[in-house]
Q: What sequence folds into this?
C-alpha cells in the first residue's frame, strides 16, 4: 500500500513538533452546557442531530501508540504499511480515552443524536479501531453510572470513516454533520469547507503530533472545557 503524501505530512511533521501552549481567545464551555448553548444559537437542531468526532487527540489520547511505532519501526515509521496495521489493530490498546470528550459523547447519546467518527488515519486491511474503542467506552460506562447511556447506545456505532489524509469536508457534507469535535487546524479547515458545520475545539494533552507548529484559537469557534483530561 502506498501512503498518501498528505497523510504522511499530517502525522510525520506533527510527530516531530513540540506542542506549544494554546492561546484561548474563545470562552471555554463545560460539556454539560455545550448542547444547550448551540441550540440557543441556532447551531443545533432539536431533531435528527448529527454529530461528528475526530479520533486521535479528540476521543483518544493516542500518542502512546505513535511513540511505540517510532520505537519499533524507526524514524520513518509513519511511511510504513506495517505501522498502520499495528496502529489500527494493537497499538490503540495503549491509547487513553479523554474523559470530558467521552462525557460529551454520552450527552449527545442522551439526546439520541447520531454519532459519526471521522479520522484522517490511513485505513489498513486489518482494522480493530472501532472494536477497541467500544471496549474502552463500555469499560468506562461500567465504572461510572453517569455514563450508563453509553452501555447500549454505543453498540449501535458500527463504522469509522477514514479519510486517508484528505479533507473531511466531503464526509461532513455527505452526512449533513451539524457539529464536529476536533483538535487540529485541518479539522477546522474541513469544517469551514463544509460550510454548515459548527466546529468544537478539543484541547490536546501534550500531543505528539499536529499539523501546524502553533494552534490559534479564534473567536468564531467553541472550546470544550477540560477536554485535555484523560481517564
A:
Amino acid at each position: 500500500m502506498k501512503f498518501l503524501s498528505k497523510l504522511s505530512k499530517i502525522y510525520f511533521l506533527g510527530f516531530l513538533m513540540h506542542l506549544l501552549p494554546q492561546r484561548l481567545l474563545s470562552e471555554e464551555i463545560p460539556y454539560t452546557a455545550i448542547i444547550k448553548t448551540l441550540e440557543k444559537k441556532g447551531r443545533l437542531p432539536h431533531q435528527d442531530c448529527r454529530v461528528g468526532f475526530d479520533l486521535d487527540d479528540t476521543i483518544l489520547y493516542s500518542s502512546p501508540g505513535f511513540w511505540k511505532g517510532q520505537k519499533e519501526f524507526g524514524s520513518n515509521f509513519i511511511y510504513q504499511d506495517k505501522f498502520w496495521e499495528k496502529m489500527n489493530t494493537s497499538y490503540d490498546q495503549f491509547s487513553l480515552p479523554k474523559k470530558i470528550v467521552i462525557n460529551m459523547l454520552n450527552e449527545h447519546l442522551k439526546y439520541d443524536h447520531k454519532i459519526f467518527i471521522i479520522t484522517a488515519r490511513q485505513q489498513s486491511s486489518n482494522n480493530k479501531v472501532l472494536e477497541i474503542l467500544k471496549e474502552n467506552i463500555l469499560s468506562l460506562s461500567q465504572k461510572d453510572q453517569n455514563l450508563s447511556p453509553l452501555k447500549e447506545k454505543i453498540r449501535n456505532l458500527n463504522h469509522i470513516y477514514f479519510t486517508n489524509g484528505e479533507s473531511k469536508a466531503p464526509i461532513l457534507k455527505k452526512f449533513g454533520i451539524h457539529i464536529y469535535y476536533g483538535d487540529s487546524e485541518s479539522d477546522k479547515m474541513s469544517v469551514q469547507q463544509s460550510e454548515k458545520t459548527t466546529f468544537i475545539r478539543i484541547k490536546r494533552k501534550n500531543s505528539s503530533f499536529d499539523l501546524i507548529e502553533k494552534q490559534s484559537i479564534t473567536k468564531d469557534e467553541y472550546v470544550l472545557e477540560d477536554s485535555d483530561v484523560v481517564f
In short: The CA atoms of residues 25 and 218 lie 6 Å apart. The chain has a mean pLDDT of 82. The chain has one domain: 5-224. The two ends are 35 Å apart (CA to CA).
